[in-house]
Amino acid sequence: MLTREQNIFLAKKTFVELVYNTAYIEGCNVTFPQTQTIIDGAVVNGVAVDDIQTVLNYEDRSSGRAGA
Predict the structure, then answer these.
(1) How many other C-beta atoms are found inside a 10 Å radius of the C-beta of residue 32?
(2) Cβ density class 2-30: b for 16+ within 10 Å, e for less
(3) Is 38 exposed, middle or buried (CB count within 10 Å of its CB: 0-12, 13-18, 19+)?
(4) pTM of the model
(5) Which residues contact 38 (CB under 8 A, 6 or more apart)?
(6) What backbone phi and psi angles, to 5 degrees, belong to 28?
(7) What is the pLDDT of residue 59?
(8) HSE of 37 in the Cβ direction (CA atoms, 13 Å)?
(9) pLDDT over 50 at 68, yes or no
């Protein structure tokens, strides 16, 4: 059985994977670490603004915050 902390870690990792894979399918040119950084709210150099916005949009949709 996983601890609460392990469950939270796995949920966050899986969430980033979902956003990354969805953005990749849509043609965004971001790496997994860049996706993590964008979701964490930090600045990522060398990534197109449109790609950053796409990742943020998928993050909002996947977390249920879209339209809130």
Answers:
(1) 13
(2) eeeeeeeeeeeeeebeebbebbeeeebeb
(3) buried
(4) 0.78
(5) 30, 44, 47, 52, 55, 56, 59
(6) -70, 140
(7) 86
(8) 13
(9) no
Over the stretch 1-37, which tens digit does the pLDDT of each residue have?
999 999 999 998 899 999 999 999 999 999 999 999 9
* Category of 27 on φ-ψ map: left (φ > 0), alpha (ψ -120 to 50) or beta: left
Alpha-carbon distances, residue 58 vs 2, 41, 52 (angstroms): 28, 14, 10
Residue tagged 């894979």 (tokens):
21
Question: Over the Cα atoms of the chain, what is R_g?
Answer: 13
d(C-alpha 42, C-alpha 27), whole Å:
22
